[in-house]
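Researcher: Sequence recovery benchmark, item below. Answer with residues only.
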């Protein structure tokens, strides 16, 4: 049913669907929006309208096509409609409208397909209007009796994305981290895990420092290669406020080719008693691993 994002492979977009031909010659790897699916609807409670559609839009380029056939119970084809060149695709939420030039039983026609991708049942509608003095049209629609329709849009590119995993030196110990955080408009999400351990300790023993952010709440951009993110988490399983600053010095922005990425973390317990004064802080250049900071627009 309805999905926010569905990836279409380039190969799937390049191959015409059941004889459908697209006028687009350039294939874009990530569509902005689209619709795909196959199935059938009932026509006058007797015949079946069988369809196959795979249409996507990347910028101003339309890709793919569709085909529709009405079939009687004994297998006789009443009509065949297929697109030759797409002219319009509009996606609003879980509804999509496709317009195209194509053929209805061999007659050049303007075609319109409307689809609804809904959890309570998908819907398919098709209209064919011949480009001739003939005033008749073909029109059919209804809920799917079999098959599935997917209407999708690509998510907005994050304003900032940072991720990394690696280690830092903490005295004679090692701090190991893994995180991902991103910001799109006012929406921030991500997670972090960090532990400090002694390389000489029993590998089965619990590390003395364990920090976790289940959901990053804030992310600030300090420069094109430096960000700070934070959120409520835990320090050794106790509630804590955790803040992390990372610097990506190996992304081509820093002129120092020998520079190493940097990771800094601090945590302060949120307890209301004397434990609230307990905290943790560590940081420095990475001894292994990598950090990536990708910023679209620096405020």
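Model:
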């Amino acid at each position: 049913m309805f999905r926010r994002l569905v990836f279409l492979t380039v190969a799937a977009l390049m191959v015409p669907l059941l004889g459908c031909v697209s006028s687009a010659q350039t294939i874009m790897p990530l569509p902005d929006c689209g619709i795909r699916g196959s199935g059938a609807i009932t026509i006058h409670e007797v015949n079946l309208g069988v369809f196959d559609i795979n249409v996507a839009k990347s910028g101003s380029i339309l890709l793919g096509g569709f085909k529709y056939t009405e079939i009687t119970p004994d297998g006789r084809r009443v009509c065949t409609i297929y697109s030759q060149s797409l002219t319009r695709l509009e996606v609003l939420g879980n509804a999509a409208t496709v317009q195209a030039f194509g053929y209805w039983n061999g007659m050049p026609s303007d075609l319109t397909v409307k689809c609804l991708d809904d959890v309570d049942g998908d819907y398919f509608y098709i209209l064919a209007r011949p480009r001739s003095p003939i005033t008749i049209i073909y029109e059919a629609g209804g809920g799917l009796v079999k098959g599935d329709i997917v209407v999708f849009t690509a998510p907005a590119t994050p304003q900032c994305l940072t991720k990394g995993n690696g280690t830092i030196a903490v005295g004679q110990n090692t701090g190991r981290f893994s995180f991902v955080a991103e910001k799109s408009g006012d929406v921030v999400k991500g997670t972090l895990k960090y532990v400090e351990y002694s390389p000489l300790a029993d590998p089965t023993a619990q590390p003395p420092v364990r920090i976790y952010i289940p959901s990053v709440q804030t992310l600030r951009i300090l420069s094109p290669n430096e960000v700070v993110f934070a959120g409520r988490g835990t320090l050794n399983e106790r509630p804590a406020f955790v803040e992390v600053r990372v610097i990506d010095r190996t992304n081509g922005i820093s002129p120092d080719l020998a520079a190493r990425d940097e990771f800094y973390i601090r945590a302060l317990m949120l307890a209301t008693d004397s434990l609230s004064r307990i905290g943790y802080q560590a940081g420095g250049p990475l001894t292994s691993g990598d950090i990536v900071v990708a910023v679209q627009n620096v405020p």
